[in-house]
UniProtKB/TrEMBL annotation, chain A:
The chain crosses the membrane at residues 6-26, 33-55, 79-101, 113-132, 138-157, 169-192, 212-238, 259-278, 284-304, 311-330, 380-403, 415-435. This is Monovalent cation/H+ antiporter subunit D family protein. Residues 134-429 form the NADH:quinone oxidoreductase/Mrp antiporter transmembrane domain. InterPro entries: CPA3_Na-H_Antiporter_D, ND/Mrp_TM. One of its GO terms (cellular component) is plasma membrane. Its main location: membrane.
C-alpha cells in the first residue's frame, strides 16, 4: 500500500462511509445495498489494517487538516479503539449481508435508498466516536449516529406503527443524554481551555480536585449512562430494539451501546484521573449497585416477555450491567473483563437478534407462543439461537463463559464475594428466559396449518459466522483476551493513575 | 458572612449562568413532564438553548471585542472557540428538532393524536397492530 494512503487511513474509513451515504440515497433502491455493502467492507478492511498496526502497542495519531493537536482535531488509534472499530465495522458488514433479504421483507422498496444511507451514516457516527481523540468531536459523531439511529428505528413502522413512538421516545431520551454530555464537556472546557482528550487529561490532573470538575464528571457520567441504557436510564431501549426492523436491531444492539461503553471507559480511565477519589466512590457506591440491580431486574423482566425481541432487549440491559460492573470495580482486571465482554456480547447478541429476524421473515412473528415447534421447521436458525442463548447464560466453551470468568475473577481478587456470587446466580435467570424459547421451539408442537421454511442462505451465513465466533472465541480466547488485556493496560497507561 | 451585597453580586456577576440554569431546568422539566409531543420538543429546544448560553457566556473575555481581526496588536478578543462549538451544536439541535417533528407528523398519521396518554391507550387496545396498520 502506498505510504501516503496508509498515512490517511484513520480518517479514510470515516470519510468513505460518510460520502457513500448520500450516494446510496441518490442511487435509489436498486444499487443502495451494493454501495453500502462495498463501503462497509472497505471500512472493515481499513480497520483490520489499523488494528494489526497498533497491536504491538504503537499509537497512531492523525491530525485532521494538518493542524497539530491540541489546537486541531486529532484522530488517535490505540489498541482499545482499534478493537472497538473492528467490532463496529465487522458487525456492519455482516448485518448488511444479512439485511438484503430481511430489509426487503420488512421495509417498502421505495425507502431502501434512504434506509441504507441512514445505516451508513449511523456506521460513520459510531466509527467516528470510536476513533476521535477530541472530546467535542465525540459529541458531533454521537449525534450523527443517534439521529440516523432514530430514523432507522422509525423505518420499522412499515411492520409495526409503534416503531414511531419508540423512535420518538428514544429521540427525547437520547437528546437529553447527549445534552448532558455537552454540559459536562462545557464545564471541563471552562476549567482547562482544551478539548483534546490527552491534553484534557493532563490539565485536569494538574488542576486537582475541585467542584467544577466534580459537576462536569457527573454530567458526563449521566449523559453517557443514559445513552448506554444503564438501569434505571434504560427505558428507551426495550421499545426501540423490539420495534425496529430486525437488521437494525441486530446492528444497534451489537454496536451503539457498546461504543457508548467505550466512550465511558475512555472518559473514566483516560481523561478523569483516578487519584480523584470522588470518581472512584461514585463508581463503587452508585454505578456498581445500579449495575447489580439492573442485571437482576432486567433478567427477571425478560423471563416474562412473550415477544422474543423484547426479551432479548431486556437481556441486553442485563448484559450492559455486567460491563458496568467490570468498570465500576476500578481495577485493571475489571476493566479488562468489561472490554472482553463488550466484544463477546456484541457477537452473541447480534447472532441472537439475527435469529429473531429470520423468524420474522419466515414465520412472520416473534411471539414465543406462536413460535412453537419452530426448531423442527428452521433447524439451522434455531441452532444458532441456542448457541447464542448458551453464551448469554455463560456455559463453558462459549464466549459468555469467558467474560463471566474474568468478571468473577476480578471481583474475587478484590475480595467482593457477594458480587461474584450474584454474577453466577444471575446466570440462572438467563437460563430461565433462554429455556422458555428452547422449550417452545423444540418440545412443543407447531400450531395447526402453519408452513415455515428455513431462512435463506444470505441470512444464515452471517448469523452462523457470529454464532461460530461465539464458540471459537469461547474455546480459544487467546486473541480476544490478549487484545482486551493490552487495551486495559493502554487505558491505564494513558492516564496518570494512582492504582490502589 | 453572607451579606446582601455578596448575594447580589453573586447573582448579577453570573447573571448569564443563572438564567442558563433556570432555562435548563425549565426545558428539562417540560421535556419530561408534558404529554403533548410538540410541547416535549419545545422543552427539549429550551434545554439545548440553555446549553448554548452556557458555552457562549464562558467564551466572553472581560473587555474583549468580537473575535474579528482588527490589525491592532493590543486588541482583546473574546474566545471564539465556544462560538464555533455552539454553531455545530445549533446545527445538531435543528436536525434533532426537524427529525422529531417529522416523527410527530408520522405519529399523527398513524394514531390520529399527538397526546402521549391517548397513544398509550391505543397501543394497549391493539396488542398486535401489524395486522391493522394500513
Amino acid at each position: 500500500m502506498p505510504e501516503a494512503l496508509f498515512h490517511h487511513l484513520p480518517v479514510l474509513q470515516v470519510v468513505l462511509t460518510l460520502v457513500a451515504a448520500p450516494l446510496c440515497a441518490l442511487a435509489g433502491s436498486r444499487w443502495a445495498w451494493s454501495i453500502a455493502t462495498a463501503a462497509s467492507i472497505i471500512a472493515f478492511a481499513i480497520t483490520v489494517t489499523l488494528f494489526s498496526s497498533v497491536l504491538d502497542g504503537t499509537v497512531i495519531s492523525y491530525h485532521i487538516g494538518g493542524w497539530a493537536p491540541p489546537i486541531g482535531i486529532e484522530y488517535r488509534v490505540d489498541i482499545l479503539n482499534a478493537f472497538v472499530l473492528l467490532i463496529v465495522s465487522g458487525i456492519a458488514v455482516l448485518t448488511l449481508i444479512y439485511a438484503q433479504k430481511s430489509v426487503t421483507a420488512e421495509i417498502g422498496s421505495e425507502k431502501h435508498g434512504l434506509f441504507y444511507a441512514a445505516f451508513l451514516l449511523c456506521l460513520t457516527g459510531l466509527m467516528g466516536v470510536a476513533i476521535t481523540g477530541d472530546a467535542f468531536n465525540v459529541f458531533v459523531f454521537l449525534e450523527i449516529s443517534s439521529l440516523s439511529a432514530y430514523a432507522l428505528i422509525a423505518t420499522g413502522a412499515d411492520r409495526d406503527r409503534r416503531a414511531l413512538t419508540a423512535a420518538y421516545n428514544y429521540l427525547i431520551m437520547g437528546t437529553i443524554g447527549a445534552t448532558f454530555f455537552v454540559i459536562g464537556l462545557g464545564l471541563l472546557y471552562m476549567l482547562t481551555g482544551t478539548l483534546n482528550m490527552a491534553d484534557l487529561a493532563q490539565r485536569l490532573f494538574d488542576h486537582g480536585d475541585n467542584r467544577t470538575l466534580r459537576t462536569g464528571f457527573c454530567f458526563v457520567l449521566i449523559g453517557l449512562t443514559l445513552k448506554l441504557a444503564m438501569f434505571p436510564l434504560h427505558l428507551w431501549l426495550p421499545d426501540a430494539y423490539s420495534r425496529a426492523p430486525s437488521a437494525v436491531t441486530a446492528f444497534l444492539s451489537a454496536t451503539a451501546t457498546k461504543v457508548m461503553v467505550y466512550v465511558l471507559l475512555r472518559f473514566l480511565f483516560a481523561i478523569f484521573s483516578f487519584s480523584f477519589a470522588f470518581e472512584a466512590s461514585v463508581l463503587r457506591v452508585l454505578v456498581l449497585p445500579l449495575a447489580m440491580i439492573g442485571i437482576v431486574v432486567a433478567s427477571v423482566v425478560a423471563i416474562f416477555q412473550d415477544d422474543l425481541k423484547r426479551m432479548l432487549a431486556y437481556s441486553s440491559i442485563a448484559q450492559i450491567g455486567y460491563m458496568l460492573l467490570g468498570l465500576a470495580l476500578v481495577s485493571q482486571t475489571g476493566v479488562m473483563a468489561s472490554i472482553i465482554h463488550l466484544f463477546n456480547h456484541a457477537i452473541t447478541k447480534a447472532a441472537l437478534f439475527m435469529a429473531a429476524g429470520c423468524f420474522v421473515l419466515q414465520a412472520g412473528t416473534t411471539s414465543i407462543r406462536e413460535l412453537r415447534g419452530i426448531g423442527r421447521d428452521m433447524p439451522w436458525t434455531m441452532a444458532a439461537f441456542v448457541v447464542g442463548g448458551l453464551s448469554l447464560i455463560g456455559v463453558p466453551l462459549t464466549v459468555g463463559f469467558i467474560s463471566k470468568w474474568y468478571l468473577v475473577e476480578a471481583f474475587i481478587a478484590e475480595g467482593w464475594w457477594p458480587v461474584a456470587l450474584l454474577i453466577v446466580a444471575s446466570s440462572l435467570l438467563s437460563f430461565a428466559y433462554v429455556w422458555r424459547v428452547v422449550e417452545a421451539a423444540y418440545l412443543r408442537d407447531a400450531p395447526e396449518g402453519v408452513v415455515r421454511k428455513e431462512a435463506p442462505l444470505s441470512m444464515l451465513v452471517p448469523m452462523w459466522t457470529l454464532a461460530g465466533m461465539s464458540i471459537y472465541f469461547g474455546v480459544d480466547s487467546s486473541l480476544t483476551s490478549a487484545a482486551a488485556s493490552r487495551a486495559a493496560n493502554a487505558l491505564i497507561g494513558a492516564s496518570n493513575l494512582f492504582w490502589q | 458572612m453572607v451579606t446582601m451585597d455578596s448575594v447580589l453580586s453573586l447573582i448579577s456577576g453570573h447573571y448569564n449562568y443563572w438564567m442558563g440554569i433556570v432555562l435548563m431546568m425549565l426545558g428539562l422539566y417540560v421535556a419530561i413532564s408534558r404529554g403533548n409531543l410538540i410541547k416535549k420538543v419545545v422543552g427539549l429546544n429550551l434545554f439545548q438553548t440553555s446549553v448554548f448560553m452556557l458555552y457562549i457566556s464562558m467564551g466572553k473575555v472581560t473587555g474583549g471585542t468580537a473575535p474579528i481581526l482588527t490589525g491592532k496588536p493590543d486588541t482583546i478578543y473574546s474566545n471564539p472557540l465556544p462560538h464555533v462549538l455552539i454553531l455545530t451544536a445549533i446545527v445538531v439541535g435543528i436536525s434533532t428538532t426537524a427529525l422529531a417533528l417529522a416523527l410527530i407528523v408520522r405519529i399523527r398519521e398513524a394514531y390520529g393524536t399527538i397526546e402521549e396518554d391517548e397513544i398509550a391507550a391505543i397501543e394497549r387496545q391493539f396488542e398486535f397492530p401489524k395486522d391493522r396498520v394500513a
